[in-house]
Design goal:
Layout lengths: L2 H15 L3 H14 L2 H13 L3 H13 L3 H13 L3 H13 L3 H13 L3 H13 L3 H13 L3 H13 L3 H13 L3 H13 L3 H13 L3 H13 L3 H13 L3 H13 L3 H13 L6 H10 L3 H13 L3 H14 L2 H13 L3 H14 L2 H13 L3 H13 L3 H13 L3 H13 L3 H13 L3 H13 L3 H13 L3 H11 L6 H13 L3 H13 L3 H13 L3 H13 L3 H13 L7
């Protein structure tokens, strides 16, 4: 201890000796910071005995650290009697822990009367626990009005749980206004459940910006539902890189869905290292992916027994693979009856596979009626396929209104087929805004046909950035018209080729051929041919003929002809 510390301690002791009880509190705080807990406790006890409320409060906190909860309760009670607000709050917390809810409510009421917002919040929580929703709401609204965002969030959860969605929304919005990222996340959950996917996405984005880890996963899930797969996965990867356990776990789920068991296992291990243990559902999905259907079935059955609704759907899907179709259909039906809209979509798809069109449409209609955008989309697509274009368009419009990019895209395609470009364009722009790579590419085609090359280029670039092979190929063709952008055009064709596009490979081959790079051009035409391109097969036959590979040239030319290419004579 340095000289200054000794002098401060001596001054506090002298002041206490002269009758200044508050000096004992300051002395106790000094000794506590120094690690002398015994000395600190003795000082706080002297202050408490001298009826200094802060002394009693500090004594209670120290005794809590030592896990002497009864002693802490007595100390907090002593300070509470003297009108100390924070002590009343902590006393209420201790009484709540030992289930003395009447005593806790009385303590929180005293804290509330003394202006302690945490006391008001806890008063609302205790009232809610005993079923007094009106009293809870009154307390939580008062705490929220004083800036406590946790109170608005709790009130929103209470009201939402009792079916007052309008009240819950208002509470969550108030909580967000107070700076609560959790309230914004809950608002997103509420809006998504109501079918307002655009509003939900905006709320999740605000929550993510505020640092809520759960909102990252919720936003990614919503983006997947909306067809924005590339953006959703990129967001999860960023959050995983930042150390998010929930994002790593969600990424593992995505990788399982994409058929990448090794990458999924690595992501799952990162989630485990950060504190999330894999559930039976995840173990089942990995086993399913690796073809171990027996293990998958056992794991999914465990998850079903634990009450995980999604597990019943996954179990049904495994039963389909095993070949036990009656059991699978029964599992889908039972899940659907519990109100799981995803099950309705799966049940509908399965019934379509069986040829039960009416049953499938009924399942899709239930999902649609529940406000699920994917159910609306599936219903619209099914009705299109089975000859009801009017109702199909209405269902697709509901999917669009509920924020599904594929709903807007399909509507736009219908209008383009009718030649109504003016109606199609805003639909394409809406789907593009929602992240659809196909919509961006189609918008680019439309704009190019109208002579808006700058707009077309930007649309193609957005499609390309989202991973569209067609968007990259179209961007390359647009750039190829300007010699200054030839290198960018080649790079775009290469991206399209790398994404598996026959058109991109053909375009790349043609460009390389024009520069005299025959070897790489031939390789590109071979890739295009292997991917089923008539034009790629034709160019390959020309190159093979030029280097006297007549047999290879003949076979390539035949493939081109079989695919519809007519050679010009």
């Amino acid at each position: 201890m340095d000289g200054d510390g000794e002098r401060v301690e001596a001054a506090y002791r002298a002041a206490e000796a002269s009758g200044d009880v508050s000096a004992a509190v300051r002395l106790g705080e000094l000794l506590y910071r120094r690690g002398d807990l015994a000395g600190a406790e003795a000082a706080f006890r002297r202050a408490d005995a001298g009826r200094d409320p802060l002394g009693g409060y500090r004594l209670g906190a120290l005794l809590e650290v030592r896990e002497d909860f009864r002693g802490a309760e007595v100390a907090y009670g002593s300070a509470d009697v003297l009108g100390h607000g924070p002590a009343a709050v902590q006393l209420g917390v201790l009484l709540t822990r030992r289930r003395d809810l009447a005593g806790a409510e009385a303590a929180f009421t005293r804290a509330d009367e003394r202006g302690e917002v945490l006391g008001t919040h806890n008063l609302g929580r205790v009232r809610a626990g005993r079923g007094d929703l009106a009293g809870a709401r009154e307390a939580l609204e008062r705490a929220g009005a004083r800036g406590d965002h946790a109170s608005w969030n709790l009130l929103g959860e209470l009201l939402g749980g009792r079916g007052d969605l309008a009240g819950a929304e208002e509470a969550f919005r108030c909580g967000e206004d107070c700076g609560s990222a959790a309230a914004a996340n809950n608002l997103g959950i509420l809006l998504a459940a109501r079918g307002d996917l655009g509003g939900a996405a905006a709320a999740y984005e605000r929550s993510v910006a505020g640092g809520d880890d759960g909102a990252v996963v919720n936003l990614a899930g919503l983006r997947f539902d909306l067809g924005q797969d590339a953006e959703a996965e990129a967001a999860l990867r960023r959050a995983d890189s930042d150390g998010s356990a929930s994002a790593a776990y969600a990424l593992a789920e995505v990788l399982v869905a994409r058929g990448k068991p090794d990458d999924a296992q690595a992501a799952l291990e990162r989630a485990q290292q950060r504190g999330i243990e894999p559930a039976a559902v995840m173990r089942g999905r990995l086993a399913d992916l690796r073809g171990d259907l027996v293990t998958a079935r056992v794991e999914f059955q465990r998850a079903v027994a634990d009450g995980v609704v999604d597990a019943a759907t996954l179990l049904a899907e495994v039963l389909v693979k095993i070949g036990d179709l009656p059991a699978a259909e029964q599992a889908f039906r039972e899940t659907s009856e519990r109100g799981e809209t995803r099950a309705d979509a799966n049940l509908g798809a399965m019934l379509l596979g069986h040829g039960d069109v009416e049953g499938a449409l009924a399942a899709f209609r239930r999902s649609d009626a529940a406000g699920h955008s994917l159910g609306s989309l599936n219903l619209g697509l099914a009705l299109e396929n089975y000859g009801d274009p009017v109702d199909a368009e209405a269902a697709l419009r509901r999917a669009d209104e509920r924020g599904h990019a594929k709903g807007a895209l399909r509507l736009a395609q219908i209008y383009l087929e009718r030649g109504d470009e003016d109606t199609a364009e805003p639909l394409l722009r809406r789907a593009d805004d929602l992240g659809s790579e196909e919509a961006a590419n189609t918008l680019g085609i439309l704009l190019k046909s109208r002579g808006d090359l700058a707009g077309a280029e930007q649309a193609y670039r957005r499609a390309d950035e989202r991973g569209s092979a067609a968007g990259a190929s179209n961007l390359g063709r647009l750039l190829l018209g300007d010699d200054d952008y030839r290198a960018q055009a080649e790079a775009a064709f290469r991206r399209s080729d790398e994404r598996g596009s026959a058109d991109g490979a053909t375009a790349l081959g043609t460009l390389l051929l024009s520069t005299g790079n025959h070897r790489d051009a031939e390789a590109a035409f071979r890739r295009a041919d292997e991917r089923g391109s008539a034009l790629g097969a034709h160019f390959l036959s020309v190159m093979l003929r030029a280097r006297s590979d007549r047999k290879g040239a003949k076979h390539a030319a035949q493939r081109a002809k079989d695919r519809g290419y007519e050679a010009q004579h």
